[in-house]
Design a protein that fits this description.
This protein is mainly beta and 84 residues long. Helix content is 10%, strand content 33%. The protein has a five-stranded mixed beta sheet, covered by helices on one side. The protein has a two-stranded antiparallel ribbon with strand order 3-4. It is globular and about 40 Å long. The model has no long low-confidence stretch (mean pLDDT 93). It binds FE2/S2 (inorganic) cluster (FES). The site of FE2/S2 (inorganic) cluster has 12 residues, from loops.
Length: 84
């Protein structure tokens, strides 16, 4: 199966073609964001409703990682990186 390379907080991650960005977050062991209480948060519903999976993708903030398919060279930044 062909792969695509994405970068999560600068870390190079190989994902099978067709994978969503939320899966790349799991592969990178990166939470999507940090709650106001300081807890790591990540994908919950997996269908675009809860917004717990939001990240910055190629400079666009608040993208729902569970709804975006990985593309070659995609740059993903999470709250962990201090971006959001
Ligand atoms: S996991 Fe709920 S919106 Fe993405």
């Amino acid at each position: 199966m062909p792969n695509v390379t994405v970068f999560v907080n600068g870390a190079r991650i190989q994902m099978p073609t067709g994978s969503v960005v939320a899966a790349a977050l799991a592969a990178a062991r990166a939470p999507a964001r940090i709650s106001l209480g300081g807890e790591p948060r990540g994908p919950l519903c997996g269908m675009g409703i809860c917004c717990e999976c939001r990240v910055t993708i190629d400079g666009q903030p608040h993208r729902l990682s569970c709804q975006v398919v990985c593309a070659e060279g995609m740059q993903v930044s999470t709250d962990e990186a201090g971006i959001l």
